[in-house]
Specification:
Number of strands: 12
Structural class: alpha/beta
Number of domains: 1
Order of helices and strands: EEEHEHHEHEEEEEHEHEH
CATH topology: Metallo-beta-lactamase, Chain A
CATH class: Alpha Beta
Low-confidence stretches: none
Strand content: 25-35%
Mean pLDDT: 97
CATH superfamily: Ribonuclease Z/Hydroxyacylglutathione hydrolase-like
Strand order of the largest sheet: 1-2-3-4-5-6
CATH architecture: 4-Layer Sandwich
Number of helices: 7
């Protein structure tokens, strides 16, 4: 479920430049990124019926404020919670100063059953992703895709050993030329991706292109989007 995004989707929710996804996989509950501030994260969680006290861990894609500001709310609810981060000394200090427990990820690691934090790649900045094994293939969560979403997908597939099914999150293609948009989408499809949910920094160009030329794989969305995979 998309808790925070700068794009509106469900009526009655707040929007803000940033990203936070709440994920349930079997008995595991976690946040992928935390949005830009505690207020928006908290308001939307309440309105969507998400109990943040159930969260067992957090994965932070990268150190930019629009992905970490909401951690202050998390720390007030569950101090000492594990927060998986890419190797970034400043980010580790920030997380630790919030009375949360930073866990630096250097290589792809399975952090719960079928849930992988994908090896950080350099953008800049250094950025990690999440890959979840499902019966349809990997669901890959991306924060801003600074290292390139195609590179992230290839890393996830190689390390988790399963074909990709879905990519959701920031694709970092706002203002990208049309030819680049076409190339990236083509590469994702060739890699096996069957659903694309462009959020946050993806840009209207890739949303419009995928919706028009590959409607079968396009997933719109924004704050309040809920995706269920069985």
């Amino acid at each position: 479920m998309v808790l925070v995004d700068n794009n509106p989707y469900k009526h009655g929710l707040e929007t803000a430049w940033g990203l936070s996804l709440y994920v349930e996989v079997n008995e595991a509950y976690f946040l992928f990124d935390a949005g830009p501030n505690p207020r928006v994260l908290g308001v939307n969680a309440v309105r969507l019926g998400v109990d943040l006290s159930r969260v067992g861990f957090v994965v932070v894609s990268h150190a930019h404020r629009d992905h970490v500001g909401g951690l202050k709310l998390v720390s007030s609810i569950k101090p000492g919670l594990r927060v998986y981060i890419p190797p970034d000394a400043g980010l580790a200090r920030y997380v630790g100063n919030l009375s949360l427990r930073p866990v630096t990820v250097n290589e792809t690691a399975e952090v719960s059953g079928g849930i992988y934090v994908v090896k950080p790649l350099y953008g800049p900045p250094v950025e990690e992703a999440v890959a979840i094994k499902t019966g349809r293939g990997l669901v890959i969560l991306v924060g801003c895709s600074h290292p390139g979403v195609v590179n992230i997908v290839k890393q996830a597939v190689g390390d988790a050993g399963l074909n990709p099914y879905m990519v959701i999150g920031g694709l970092h293609m706002s203002g990208a030329p049309y030819s680049e948009v076409v190339d990236v989408v083509t590469q994702l499809i060739k890699a096996g991706v069957r659903k694309i949910y462009p959020l946050h920094c993806s840009g209207d160009g890739i949303r419009e292109y995928v919706a028009e030329h590959h409607a079968d794989i396009y997933g719109g969305g924004g704050a309040g989007l809920e995706v269920m995979i069985r």
